[in-house]
């Protein structure tokens, strides 16, 4: 299995994306002029929904993110690509189909993704998401079937058919994206943007070092962060602040909208499980919706351009996302018998990382959208 080398071209491509923004920084504003221009362009483009693919491991918080997408006029969901993660693919695949049936959107194609990480055994999070991945809540078996293509094939076909138009909301382990990039190394440059729920600069949630999505498949995360794609990282640093209250769960449950009501059932079951287990301090954290929320409305988060590397060899830290704010990108001290120490890499930002969130405003946005209330 060929190694995916640290692609300098990829780094340069990725950095060029960010450097361009910085290069035209407009001293008169806090935003680089290029970014202001992009924002203005996006604002114009917002008349037309922005096209997205959701790569996901549903997953109770994935369910909220998928429902949010289906209740947001700013986006058009072109496909959903399930991957093994929170629960095995045998559950994430039918769960994706179920969620679309609940929303009456079986027109959206679903393609089966990877059933295991690139190099590791699958570690799941059924203790949080329930054995069926939806908090144990039983929904009817889906009638609709997945498409014949695999997730990497569908991602490649849709992106290649519309270069620069599709964005990806990646809210599970990054195995599907890594496989697509390995099959088509030019693909990252054809993707408009990738918003990733994953990683953390402030400690993990499945080990002290690693966040679950990057923990499950560190090698896939390394491929994606080194690919040169325009990445926004929405990590635990901000998603830990997105806690649903009992009242907000009640608003979902009492929603007349089948999407809101289904979300309420899943959140109620998850809240009960979280309180039984004492996980996350008994708080109902919902990580994934913010990856989509910050794509729809960037002002929900504060971003900083960083260089992100993924730890892949640690006995205790594999999956850790290491953020460099400035040069040098220094690696661990070399072994005594190592060849000459690897040259330190120059500082090239490869991700915009969310460091703060307007949690209350985002949660209100989420609940309003899922309960069809006008905000
Ligand atoms: O660490 C949180 C992430 O892991 C979320 O995407 C959740 O769904 C799980 O996949
Ligand atoms: Ca997820």
Question: Which descriptors would you attach to this protein?
Answer:
375 residues; alpha/beta; Inosine-uridine Nucleoside N-ribohydrolase, Chain A; eight-stranded mixed sheet; two-stranded antiparallel sheet; 15 helices; 39% helix; 14% strand; disordered N terminus; binds alpha-D-ribofuranose; binds calcium ion
Task: Explain what you see.
The structure is a single chain. The model is unreliable at 1-39 (pLDDT under 50). The protein is globular, with a radius of gyration of 20 Å. Strands 2-1-3-4-5-10-8-9 form an 8-stranded mixed sheet, sandwiched between helices. The protein has a two-stranded antiparallel ribbon with strand order 6-7. The longest helix has 20 residues, at 258-277. It is of the alpha/beta class. Helix 3 (60-70) runs antiparallel to helix 13 (258-277), helix 3 packs parallel to helix 14 (289-296) and helix 12 runs antiparallel to helix 13 (258-277). The chain has one domain (2-370): Alpha-Beta Complex (Inosine-uridine Nucleoside N-ribohydrolase, Chain A), CATH 3.90.245.10. The chain is built from 15 helices and 10 strands. The chain has helices spanning 8-23, 33-45, 60-70, 89-102, 126-129, 151-161, 175-183, 187-190, 212-216, 218-225, 236-239, 246-253, 258-277, 289-296, 359-370, and strands at residues 50-56, 75-82, 166-170, 193-197, 231-234, 243-244, 284-285, 301-310, 321-324, 351-357. The structure holds alpha-D-ribofuranose (RIB) and calcium ion. Alpha-D-ribofuranose (RIB) binds next to helix 3 and helix 9. Alpha-D-ribofuranose binds at residues 57, 59, 61-62, 85-86, 125, 171-172, 197, 205, 211-213, 287-288.
């Amino acid at each position: 299995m060929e190694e995916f080398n640290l692609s300098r071209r990829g780094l340069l491509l990725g950095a060029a994306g960010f450097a361009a923004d910085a290069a035209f920084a407009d001293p008169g504003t806090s935003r680089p002029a290029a970014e202001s221009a992009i924002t203005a362009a996006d604002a114009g483009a917002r008349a037309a929904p922005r096209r997205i693919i959701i790569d996901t491991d549903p997953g109770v918080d994935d369910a909220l993110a998928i429902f949010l997408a289906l209740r947001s006029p700013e986006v058009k969901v072109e496909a959903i690509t399930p991957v093994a993660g929170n629960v095995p693919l045998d559950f994430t695949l039918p769960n994706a189909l179920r969620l679309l049936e609940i929303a009456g959107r079986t027109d959206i194609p679903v393609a089966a993704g990877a059933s295991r990480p690139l190099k590791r055994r699958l570690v799941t999070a059924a203790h949080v998401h329930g054995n069926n991945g939806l908090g144990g809540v039983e929904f009817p078996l889906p009638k609709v079937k997945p498409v014949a293509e695999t997730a990497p094939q569908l991602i490649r076909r849709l992106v290649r058919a519309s270069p620069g138009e599709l964005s990806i909301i990646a809210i599970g382990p990054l195995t599907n994206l890594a496989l697509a990039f390995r099959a088509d190394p030019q693909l990252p440059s054809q993707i408009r943007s990738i918003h990733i729920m994953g990683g953390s600069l402030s400690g993990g949630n499945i080990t002290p070092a690693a966040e679950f999505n990057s923990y499950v498949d560190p090698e896939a995360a390394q491929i994606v962060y080194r690919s040169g794609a325009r990445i926004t990282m929405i990590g635990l640093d901000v998603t830990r602040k997105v806690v649903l209250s009992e009242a907000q769960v009640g608003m979902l449950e009492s929603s007349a909208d089948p999407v809101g009501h289904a979300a309420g059932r899943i959140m109620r079951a998850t809240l009960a499980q979280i309180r039984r287990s004492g996980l996350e301090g008994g708080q109902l954290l919902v990580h994934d919706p913010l990856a989509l929320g910050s794509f729809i409305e960037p002002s929900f988060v504060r971003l900083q351009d960083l260089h992100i590397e993924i730890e892949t060899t640690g006995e205790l830290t594999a999956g850790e996302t290491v953020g460099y704010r400035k040069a040098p990108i220094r690696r661990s001290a070399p072994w005594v018998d190592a060849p000459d120490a690897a040259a330190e890499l120059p500082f090239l930002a490869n991700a915009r990382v969310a460091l703060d969130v307007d949690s209350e405003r985002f949660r209100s946005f989420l609940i309003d959208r899922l309960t069809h209330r006008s905000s």
